[in-house]
Amino acid sequence: MPLPKAELHLHIEGTLEPELAFELAARNGVSLPYADTEELRKAYDFEDLQSFLNLYYELMAVLRTERDFEDLADAYLARAAAQGVRHAEIFFDPQAHIARGVGMGTVVEGLWRALGESEARHGVSTQLIMCFLRDESAESALETLEAAKPYLDRIVGVGLDSAEVGHPPVKFREVYEAAAALGLRRVAHAGEEGPPEYITEALDVLGVERIDHGLRCMEDAGLVERLVRERVPLTLCPLSNVRLRTVDVLADHPLPAMLDAGLLCTVNSDDPAYFGGYAGDNFDAVRSALGLGEERLRELARNSFLASFLEHDEERRARYLAEVEEYRF
Ligand code: ADE
Ligand code: ZN
Given 192, 193, 201, 299, which residue is catalytic? Predict the structure, then answer.
């Protein structure tokens, strides 16, 4: 039985496995510029975040109907459950779909068909986090929040993703203020490729409660001290960092140093279909490459539930935390 954990940094579009991409392409009459899954997999040799994003957005062309989004999410939840995920807070990128003529309703209703069945079918509780694309305009983000208003009972919070450098958090001040006024939780990618200042800005200007990635905080001792003091969770994604070349090899990943510094780190999969592994695979990888002991792994699992947005159901959080404490490696 795998270690119970929550997944807090997962882009549902990044769970699109090549086999499902071809299946959906056939179903929807979409042609992909790859002969087969093998040729597609060869394109998974990324130089940086942007080279990954290019393929990530290209393959989204196969996602057209509610059923497509349902199948995508259900396939993810089955895999996550098999790797010990008990709770998943799932990102989606509506602007990337709306731009292709696929409406907010199709995306949210489709995902919800799978999420609504997830506890019964997979034993995984779920929440949805709507991300704004930071390389799109602030106006577009505001329009997206407006389009989401009929579905807010299904969305726990907002996030910020896509190409980071040159798109500082401050650009999205207004939409985050509006999201807060609607009672939405707030997170943002920061310090993945962008500088530590983006982490500070996400906290101070956007009022985020968690930082997605946050790896580059390690360049600023004062910032590390603050993140420790304020217990700001970081949703790290080790296999993603290697595949996008933020770190050279997993053995060089700063996770052990971050834990030693007292940071509230969690381990997540980001875009598992593209980066070589789901949540449990990320745990296994850091365990072997970084020599993390059982108590460190337990700490990471505990942190994942402490950092999750389960305030509406503290009983559930306590149950998950008890599972972590009782787990025998
Ligand atoms: N969108 C999907 N995965 C992402 C990542 N790792 N960073 C920024 N945007 C993303
Ligand atoms: Zn991400």
Answer: 192
Tell me the mean pLDDT in the region 191-218: 98
Q: Tell me 254's DSSP state.
A: S
> DSSP letter string over 293-324?
-HHHHHHHHHHHHHTSS-GGGHHHHHHHHHHH
Architecture category of domain 5-326 in CATH: Alpha-Beta Barrel (3.20)
Task: Using pLDDT thresholds of 50, 70 and 90, give the confidence band for residue 152.
Answer: very high
User: Minimal CA–CA distance to 304: which of 271, 268, 272?
Assistant: 268
Domain spans, the chain: 5-326
Nearest to 107 by CA among 79, 87, 130: 130
Atom of ligand 1 nearest to the CA of 56: 2
Dihedral (CA of 68, 244, 100, 24) sign: negative
Ligand 1 midpoint to CA 223 (Å): 23
Beta bridge partners of 190: 213
Q: Are 67 and 103 in contact (CB under 8 A)?
A: no
Q: Which residues contact 252 (CB under 8 A, 6 or more apart)?
A: none
**Ligand nearest to the Cα of 268, by number:** 2
Q: Which of helix, strand or coil describes residue 45? A: coil
Identify the residues whose C-beta falls under 6 Å from ligand 1: 11, 14, 49, 56, 161-162, 189, 192, 240, 270-271
CA dihedral (59, 164, 159, 146) in degrees, to 10, reads -80
Largest CA distance in the chain: 53
Q: Measured between alpha carbons, how far is 196 from 155 in angstroms, rounded to an integer? A: 28
The residues, any chain, with a CB within 8 Å of residue 327's CB and separated by 6 or more, are: 1, 3, 4, 298, 301
pTM over cut 0.90: yes
Q: What is the DSSP letter of 156?
A: -
Task: Work out the average pLDDT over 83-111.
Answer: 98
The set of residues, in sequence order, having a beta carbon less than 8 Å from that of 169 and lying 6+ positions away, is: 160, 188, 190, 198, 201, 202, 205, 206
